[in-house]
Design a protein that fits this description.
Blueprint: E1 4-6, E2 14-16, H1 17-55
């Protein structure tokens, strides 16, 4: 019985060592791909934040148009 183990109910279902290892490696590869995807998404988000931080005006330093200067003579414009 070397290289194989019985199934959960010992009903004759034989699970070989290579099947177990294949399942473990597939699971590990899936986890590593998920970690890689998360790392890439994090890098992209960080780069986007840096990009927009460089291009957005600093809060409180926004240039607004100045109010119109009062007219000479102090009267309202004619209509």
């Amino acid at each position: 019985m070397s290289g194989r183990t019985r199934g959960p109910a010992d009903g004759g279902n034989v699970v070989y060592h290579n099947d177990i290892m294949y399942a473990l490696m597939r699971e590990r590869a899936r986890d590593m791909r998920a970690e890689g995807d998360a790392a890439r998404a994090g890098r992209a988000a960080r780069r986007a934040r840096e990009y927009w931080a460089d291009r957005m005006p600093v809060p409180g330093r926004i240039r607004r148009p100045r109010a119109a200067a009062p007219r000479r003579g102090g009267t309202a414009p004619a209509r």
